[in-house]
Amino acid sequence: MSESDLAEMRTQADRLGFDLPESILEEILETATAGEEHAAASVRTSEGAGHRSEDEENALLAVFDEPRVRTDSGPLFGKTLAVKDNIAVSDLEMTCGSAAYSVVPSFTAPAVDRLLEAGAGLVGKANMEPFAMGPTGEFSDFGHVTNPIDPDIVAGGSSSGSAAAVAAGTVDVALGSDTGGSIRIPSACCGIVGVKPSHRLVPRNGFVDFAPSLDTIGPMTRDVSTAASALAAMAGRDPLDPTSADRSVALETLEDLDDVDGLTVGIPDTPFERASDEVADAVRTVTDRLSTLGIETESVELDLGDTEAAYLNIGAAEFSWLVSGNGVTRGQGTGYDETLRQAFESAREAGLGEHVARRILPPAFLDMTSGGASYAAAREEGLAFSARLETAFEAVDALVTPTLRVRPPAVETVTTRADLLPILGNTAPFNIAGTPAVTVPVTSVDGLPVSAQAVAPQFEDARALRVARALERVAD
Length: 476
What we know:
The chain is an alpha/beta fold.
């Protein structure tokens, strides 16, 4: 026990309002030090299995020589799986797309574990933007990810490797994470299906958070049916994630997905008005065909407000809190793992990099200097939007919007905060609301994919998938 440690304990006690004698502080410090020693002893430092992938798109990082299959049956048997590199897989190095972060987990996240139980064969880990920050796929410390459709167009992010691996046919299913569009944006750029589940539907234990109040884990596939099977396998409560919901997604067959007769789908005004004319017109052309499947469409009001700025402020503030706690979610967080915490601490000491700093520091600085007022204002903006969304759902069963407001952008063109808004402006609002959203490629403009997004009320993920399947059926 050092004098400096005792002085720090006194400072903490004074800050929290505890007026304690020196003897009690020494006793408390001994307890704290013993816990620190136990934590250090539990950290795993072994080398991971697998090797660096050499795929053409740079979509994958650490991969096994052969897919690891746990069972020879199940709805995903015969399907290959890649996992975004911020989700734990036992014995495979996890980097979060950052050269500063490296850990070999001793356990597999339940979201992955459940897919293996459903028959999927695990190929390895997918490349990503550092700490899931960035909508283009250009900034991974392990090299940018190439879009299989056109190398001059961004692959999207932050689940860039997951999208590219699926689009290239390297794997059948990939897991991504979505904080403001990080599943749906790369899926739209690469012309595949991407599912952002309801917040809390899929457990996040074993996942490195970006913003816990917004984060979700979801599947990315080439068709809605496979996505539905994957989400059904992943959903449900996990005891090590107290935030996870005791919910399921009951979609057993393709016939279940095709059961849309009588649904009413709203076409919201603002998400189309803020999109480019070519994208808005292309998506409207496809939604007009939904009536051939027995779906009624009607225009609805949905003011997005300033949800883009609200998302950026919420995400930056929550990540800055995670950084200060070395990746530990305070309050009602997911299961704690000392190995992941220590890896985050090491990354913090090494430096998280300029890309992360540029995304996080401006809103985090505003949050700090305003005494939390900017975060509170962003939350108020989000609550107001959620109320407007609930009103819209009183009139319709689901919504369809363009996923991106523009065509997938060219590489090296998204350089300012203003450049982000056309990419995430239609996706981030539904992270704030916690509702399910599924993106589906529906047509193309000048050879580039244009996608539509099906949105349903929270925990009505099956309904969102049904509408997504309907869009898939009437797509060009």
